[in-house]
Amino acid sequence: MTSASPDASLSALPTTVRTTATATATGLLTPSTLPYGRAEDVLCWLHGDPAQGLLGWGEAARFEVSGPDRFARAAAWWDQTVARFEIDDQVQVAGSGPLLFGSFSFEDDDRSVLVMPRVVLGVSAGQAFVTTVDGADPSASTQPLRSPGPLTWSDGQVSDEAYKKLVAAAVTAIRSGDLNKVVTARDALARAKEPLDVRALLARLSARYPQCWTYAVDGLVGATPELLVRRQGDLIFSRVLAGTGWRGGAAGSGRENPDDAVTAFLTGSGKNAEEHRYAAVSAAEALGPYCAELDVPDQPSVLRLANVVHLSTDLTGRLARPVSVLELAGALHPTAAVCGTPTPVAAAYIRSAGGLDRDRYAGPTGWLDAAGNGEFGIALRCAQVSGGTARLYAGGGIVADSVPENELDETYAKLAALRDALENA
Ligand SMILES: C=C(O[C@@H]1C=C(C(=O)O)C=C[C@H]1O)C(=O)O
After folding, report:
1. Is the CB–ligand 1 distance for residue 337 below 6 Å?
2. Residue 195 to residues 151, 192, 382, 386: CA-CA distances in angstroms?
3. Which of 161, 174, 281, 324 has the least C-beta neighbours within 10 A?
């Protein structure tokens, strides 16, 4: 599925893109700068404290695509589109000039969405800038952030009981076949009386999770700790996570994991270390063919977030030839962290197990510029927001000795990121 034939969509496309420096202080790149509007209209990529990154609104161009070649088709559409622009980029930093936000489906046959905003506010390397398309007015008529008000919670497609059965079935399949690890997932639904203000969720997420990348593309909103790939010139970076510990109070589950035991559990557990090593090596194998140099640390580090801790490995490399961040994201997806191992066996198991429709959850989500530089995270710790409804997603890696109750707790700990943002925004 594409939104239109390439020629038809190109004729309606914008022609001029202009980036100028602004005096905006770094601390002012906040979601409250965005105009209030539908969840689907908010575009965001923020990281750090004070936050740097990109906020976008308005739709200058959109491309929807599905299929196993969706990354290549999106890259071809963007190259063709960019070639027609008259570009005046007075800043020349990461994210300046023509910019595309994108969010790809986990499975091949669901919808992936790419949106070029009409206005972008950015801060990169301490430099603030604004990009406008076809002379768009960059001054947003802002409104105060709106809190969601009282929420009603209900099961999504996969209830607590259904999730425990899904985990138990996965354990049986792992013990009896050639599957080593598979990532199962579930959802939960929150309903508010009024349409949700995505800006308020983003503000809460970026303040609480500065080490994560807070994102929004076409209503998919979250703060991911896992950066699938960054490409800037010939440098690449990827943060691989696998292995999760969580603090007490998995959202009222009654089963607690004491705070000081978490790191010891993660670093002391052979199972976690082995699973993590496998995830890091498989990411390195996907990136290797593109790289002249690739550094893979021997030992993982511990990434501490407000709700969970993870084993984490940062890969850094130098490309052997220029290649779009979209091609790199396509080569890495799906990683062992969100699919399992061996990849084809785990992917087939996920399709046949009758669990959750993932849509864009666990798919690559991020941005790219005219030269194919950019950043794509894995869409985790997220919700699909539409009107007053949010569908929250969470999952975890299942291995031969996984225990369904513990796995359910792990999803609660992961869901807490969005749950807290909804309840306290
Ligand atoms: C699948 C999720 O997280 C992934 C699974 C992890 C695990 O199994 O330990 C850790 C981080 C992520 O790679 C999720 O957050 O929904």
Report:
1. yes
2. 12, 7, 17, 8
3. 161
Determine whether the shortest distance from the Cβ of 360 to ligand 1 is under 6 A: no
Q: Mean pLDDT of all residues in the chain? A: 91
Report the C-alpha gap between 177 and 345 in whole angstroms. Answer: 10
| Catalytic residue, candidates 40, 226, 375, 407 | 226
Domains of the chain listed by start with CATH number: 6-141+151-424 (3.60.120.10)
The Å distance, Cα 143 to ligand 1 centre, comes to 35
Please say if 181 is a catalytic residue.
yes
Confidence category of residue 10, pLDDT binned at 50, 70, 90: low
CA 91 to ligand 1 center in whole angstroms: 37
Q: Checking DSSP bridges between strand 374-378 and strand 227-232, what pairing results, if any? A: antiparallel
- Of the residues 64, 86, 161, 181, only one is catalytic, namely 181
Residues 268-310 pLDDT 10s: 767 778 788 889 999 999 999 999 999 999 999 999 999 999 9
* pTM, rounded to two decimals: 0.94
Beta bridge partners of 89: 19
143-201 per-position pLDDT tens digit: 899 999 999 999 999 999 999 999 999 999 999 989 999 999 999 999 999 999 999 99
Q: Across residues 408-416, what is the average pLDDT? A: 96
Choose which residue among 106, 224, 228, 244 to substitute to test ligand 1 binding: the one with the highest number of ligand atoms within 8 A of its C-beta: 244
User: What crossing angle do the helices spanning 270-287 and 325-332 adopt, rounded to 10°?
Assistant: 140
The C-alpha atoms of residue 221 and residue 376 are separated, in whole angstroms, by 14
Q: Is the CB of 381 under 6 A from ligand 1?
A: yes
Residue 341 backbone phi and psi in degrees, to 5: -145, 145
Rounded CA separation 381/189 (Å) = 14
- Residue 285 falls in the annotated catalytic set: no
Residue nearest ligand 1's atom 5 by CA: 396
Which two structure tokens, joined as six digits, stand for 60? 């200058």
Helix pair angle (198-208, 404-424), 10° resolution: 120
- How far, in Å, from the CA of 276 to the mean position of ligand 1? 11
Report whether residue 379 contacts ligand 1, using a CB cutoff of 6 Å: no
pLDDT at 126: 84
